[in-house]
Design a protein that fits this description.
Layout lengths: L2 H24 L6 H13 L2 E2 H7 L9 H9 L3 E5 L7 E5 L1 H24 L5 H12 L3 H17 L1
Antiparallel strand pairs: 1-3, 2-3
Helix pairs in contact: 1-5, 2-5
Length: 157
Amino acid sequence: MLPAEELRYLILAAQREGNRLLGRELKPLGVTSSQAEVLRILQERQPLTLSGLGDLLICESGNNPSRLVDRLTAAGLVDRRVAAHDRRHVELTLTEEGMRLAHRITEIENDLYRAIDAAADGRDLDEITGFLRAFVEGLPSGQALSRRIGTEQESRS
């Protein structure tokens, strides 16, 4: 197997295993990993428009998360409201139940991040993440991640 081929499959395997572990912990909460991502983004950046949310999603290809939001709205986790400044824009916010669930999802994600940190102990994560950033740079998922990282850094300033 070529080194690049092995790397490709290792990335795919790590992504699948991470999603499997996350999905197992999210299942009792009644949400998928994609729905959890929507809840977490709204938790950190609400209110957002549907397109604004779509610009930050990595789990979904394209910028139209309307089906995800429809399910979360039907479950009573997300509110849709017409923006006061422009009736054509619908703003998304979390309901109280959505906020409670987002906090629980944060705890689950933090457990996963601790497991990743433990597996990475003694390895140069800056080098690994630098390579992965370069690999996805300019691609839709890489652009979404850059927007999320940029927004997080702006909000910390």
